[in-house]
Specification:
Blueprint: E1 20-23, E2 28-31, E3 37-42, H1 53-71, E4 75-82, H2 87-96, H3 100-117, E5 125-128, H4 129-145, E6 149-152, E7 155-158, H5 174-183, E8 200-204, E9 220-222, H6 224-235, E10 240-246, H7 250-265, E11 271-277, E12 280-282, E13 285-286, H8 297-302, H9 307-315, E14 323-324, H10 327-344, H11 353-364, H12 369-385, H13 393-405
Parallel strand pairs: 3-4, 3-10, 4-5, 10-11, 12-14
Antiparallel strand pairs: 1-2, 6-7, 7-8, 8-9, 12-13
Helix pairs in contact: 4-6, 6-7, 9-10, 10-12, 11-12, 11-13
């Protein structure tokens, strides 16, 4: 599966700072020192609907991670999946009378268009669950052979009790896990499971649903968590730098994935940091497909809004915050974009050397994009009030905003 085209990232003078990021597993900030190649895995979409602002906010956060790392003169090895076969996708296809593969391909193509418009840097490897199945099957077989998985009426489940580190990612107690499991695709009430929290690794073929040959597993399709584990291990290996996604993935998805990988390899941790973006709401509720309260990136673009303004709206809130999308948030971003463009359109201006370092420091400090925006606001205000004599300043500001914030002025 191919990703989307990459926009050029301008080089800035000097060198950026190492990233200090909030790690869900420890509950505090850690400083990451990835070495010459930084490795990041971000969980992708289930393509049964268009990209909404909640998606965009999450991918914007991890785009900032890439930009901070690139500014430290590192290479970035970024992997993202597409869950192109799963219950929600199949249910939507049945509801709308569509072929599930056509639905997945159409929505994935629209996602690519949205990411391109928003100037999100693409992953080096963009892998669909379906194409990963040949690598998933042997992992499930290995877990079963090692006694970390078991059969139940043809399905195969992972035994969470086989991983001594289970629970370390989310830090939740068993009852909270059970409740979230029921809400987020698990089946804690199914009779016969060794532990109510045990997640499915391989679902035996169901009538009317797609299935693939699973060698000794029989025909079926993979569970949600093992999909990402197979892709991450194949392309990044154990101990990669960041496992990322929305905060609703901390449990069960990232918790279960870490346990799968640790049981497979005998190594710990699966990732050095677990980084989670907050939820975006609308009208007092989390923006989600199940609630139907979505603001689609493509729809806002069709209304004639500059994608750079959409990106500034996302950047105006800290990535870990839960926040509300409103017309005013977007209007403020449109106005800010106009001010910045006017400021950099002049032939000279006040020195921008300090601004570059302010933006670098803000983003290195747990991706503090609101503080970075405020720094650019101050330079633009000074430019408007006093101007300056530095002929290189407007160009340096433009390159800084482009390289570190992904906004083209």
């Amino acid at each position: 599966m191919h990703a989307w085209p990459a926009s050029e990232v301008p080089a800035l003078p000097g060198k950026g700072r190492d990233l200090r990021i909030h790690d869900t597993a420890t509950g505090g900030r850690i400083t990451l020192d990835p070495g010459p190649v930084a490795r990041i895995y971000v969980c992708g979409i289930t393509p049964y609907d268009a990209t909404h602002m909640g998606h965009a906010a999450t991918y914007n956060a991890f785009d900032l991670v890439q930009r901070v790392w690139l500014d430290t003169k590192r290479q970035v090895h970024y992997v993202q999946n597409v869950t192109d076969v799963d219950d929600p996708l199949l249910e939507r296809a049945v509801r709308d009378g569509q072929d599930w593969t056509e639905l997945a391909e159409r929505e994935t193509a629209l996602f690519r268009e949205d990411m391109t418009a928003l100037r999100m840097l693409p992953p080096q490897h963009y892998i669909g669950a379906v194409e990963a199945i040949p690598g998933i099957v042997p992992l499930v077989e290995r877990l079963r052979d090692a006694g970390a998985a078991y059969d139940l009426d043809g399905d195969v489940y992972f035994s969470v009790d086989t991983d001594p580190h289970f629970g370390e990612v989310s830090g939740l107690d068993a009852e909270a896990m059970r409740l979230l499991s029921a809400e987020r695709g698990g089946d804690p009430e199914r009779p016969g499971k060794k532990n109510p929290l045990d997640p499915m690794l391989w679902m035996a073929a169901r009538p009317g649903e797609p299935s693939w040959g699973g060698a000794s597993l029989g025909a079926g399709r993979p569970g949600w968590h093992i999909e990402c584990v197979a892709i991450a291990l194949d392309h990044l290996g154990m101990g990669f730098d960041i496992q990322g996604g929305g905060s609703d993935l901390a449990f069960p998805h990232h918790e279960m994935g870490a346990s799968h990988a640790q049981a497979l390899t005998g190594e710990h941790p699966f990732a050095k940091a677990y980084v989670h973006a907050g939820m975006v709401g609308l009208d007092g509720e989390k923006m989600s497909k199940s609630r139907g309260n979505l603001v689609f990136v493509s729809a806002v673009r069709r209304d004639g809004v500059d994608p750079a303004a959409i990106r500034l709206a996302l950047l105006s809130r800290h990535y870990r915050s839960d926040w509300e999308w409103t017309d005013q948030v977007l209007a403020d971003a449109v106005e800010r974009l106009a001010r910045w463009r006017a400021a950099v359109s002049r032939p000279d201006g006040p020195s921008a050397d300090a601004l570059v370092e302010e933006v670098r420091e803000a983003l290195a400090d747990d991706l503090d994009s609101p503080t970075a925006l405020a720094a650019v606001d101050r330079w633009a205000a000074l430019q408007g009030a006093e101007g300056g004599t530095d002929e290189g300043a407007p160009g340096l500001v433009s390159r800084t905003v482009d390289a570190l914030l992904g906004v083209a002025l």
